[in-house]
């Protein structure tokens, strides 16, 4: 038998606290009156005088308040917390969450009574876009008076996004009072840099100068091109240049045909004609492609200054600048130019050479010996 084991068990089996003998047994307050009653009216008890009864009553009262250490004069009722979420440790955060949920519930009920919810799928696509930018987690930490973790921030923004969708419905339907109430709540959580953030990807429209010229900038790979475009002026026909004597006196039997105005435009690249600067047909086709797609071939004179890169990059940069210039002169061509991906810079770049390879992806021929 293991002695250490038996000793350890004997130590563990001992009571953790020793019972101390008290001079007087504990009597609960609820039983104090019973003890006092049994003392007076027990069988065979002697009849007590008034002084003895008063002494027993005082001793009973002393026992009631001796153990509890209760002071009746200084007793004050415990104050209730201000928020029902006081014991969560983040009362401010959960109070705001509850307020947002209540606002969403009230707004949903209002829109349902106005027969604006639920919306069909096609109606959602017709709503007025109202992008917004919420405060950062650091800014919301100050507002909510608690550390805004990723999960808490996502929960708050999810509620705000739902409220913003209801704002779009109310604004599109024309209910200004409902939209104002929703907007007053959303504005509390919107970032102060909203306007600058939303205008970050918006470009300024190209302005035409006093001569009707447009100035645009195009890029492709490492090439950059500056492009000026101006409408071609119609040729002025002289009065007697295309009229002979027979036609003048009506001696000709052939009906006179109206002259055909053929507009002749010029495309100069670095002060050289396009055919001279780009001898390859594929480069020239790349440049005139925006003009063909928009249907304005021969309508504008184009002057460009291009720098950097090779022929492919330079022709692509010129085409990018021409497409932007066409959109400046004729905004109605923007849809077809965007569909052809001509208004957007081609993001493709030359892939770098890798170590151990002949080029970017080409490998050396494997030789056995």
TrEMBL record:
Record flagged with keyword Ribonucleoprotein: yes
Pfam families referenced in this protein's UniProt entry, alphabetically: Ribosomal_S9
UniProt keyword terms in alphabetical order: Ribonucleoprotein, Ribosomal protein
SUPFAM superfamilies, alphabetized: Ribosomal protein S5 domain 2-like
Example GO molecular function: RNA binding
Signal peptide, first to last residue: none
Keyword presence, Ribonucleoprotein: yes
GO cellular-component term (any): mitochondrial small ribosomal subunit
InterPro entries named among the record's database cross-references: Ribosomal_Su5_D2-typ_SF, Ribosomal_uS9, Ribosomal_uS9_CS, Ribsml_uS5_D2-typ_fold_subgr
A single BP term in Gene Ontology: translation
UniProt family annotation: Belongs to the universal ribosomal protein uS9 family.
Entry protein name: SSU ribosomal protein S9P
Organism of this sequence: Lentinula lateritia
């Amino acid at each position: 038998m293991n002695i250490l084991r038996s000793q350890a068990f004997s130590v563990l089996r001992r009571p953790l606290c020793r019972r101390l003998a008290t001079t007087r047994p504990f009597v609960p307050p609820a039983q104090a009156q019973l003890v006092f009653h049994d003392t007076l009216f027990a069988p065979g008890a002697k009849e007590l005088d008034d002084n003895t009864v008063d002494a027993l009553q005082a001793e009973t009262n002393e026992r009631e308040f001796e153990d509890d250490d209760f002071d009746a004069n200084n007793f004050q009722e415990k104050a209730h917390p201000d928020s029902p979420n006081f014991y969560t440790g983040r009362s401010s955060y959960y109070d705001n969450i509850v307020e947002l949920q209540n606002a969403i519930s009230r707004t949903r009920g209002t829109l349902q009574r106005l027969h604006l919810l639920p919306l069909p799928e096609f109606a959602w696509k017709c709503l007025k876009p109202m992008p917004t930018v919420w405060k950062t987690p650091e800014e919301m930490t100050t507002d909510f008076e608690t550390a805004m973790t990723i999960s808490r921030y996502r929960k708050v923004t999810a509620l705000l996004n739902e409220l913003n969708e209801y704002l779009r419905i109310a604004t599109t339907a024309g209910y200004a009072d409902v939209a104002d109430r929703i907007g007053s709540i959303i504005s509390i959580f919107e970032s102060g840099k909203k306007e600058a953030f939303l205008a970050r990807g918006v470009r300024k429209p190209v302005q035409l100068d006093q001569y009707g010229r447009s100035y645009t900038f195009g890029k492709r790979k490492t090439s950059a091109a500056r492009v000026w475009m101006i409408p071609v002026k119609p040729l002025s026909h002289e009065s007697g240049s295309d009229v002979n004597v027979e036609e003048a006196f009506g001696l000709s039997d052939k009906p006179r045909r109206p002259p055909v105005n053929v507009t002749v435009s010029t495309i100069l690249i670095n002060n050289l004609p396009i055919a001279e600067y780009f001898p390859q047909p594929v480069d020239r086709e790349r440049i005139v492609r925006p003009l063909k797609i928009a249907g304005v071939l021969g309508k504008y004179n184009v002057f460009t200054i291009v720098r950097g890169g090779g022929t492919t990059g330079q022709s692509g940069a010129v085409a990018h600048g021409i497409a932007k210039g066409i959109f400046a002169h004729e905004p109605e061509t923007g849809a077809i130019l965007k569909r052809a991906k001509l208004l957007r810079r081609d993001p493709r770049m030359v892939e770098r050479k890798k170590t151990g390879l002949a080029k970017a992806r080409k490998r050396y021929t494997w030789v056995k010996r």
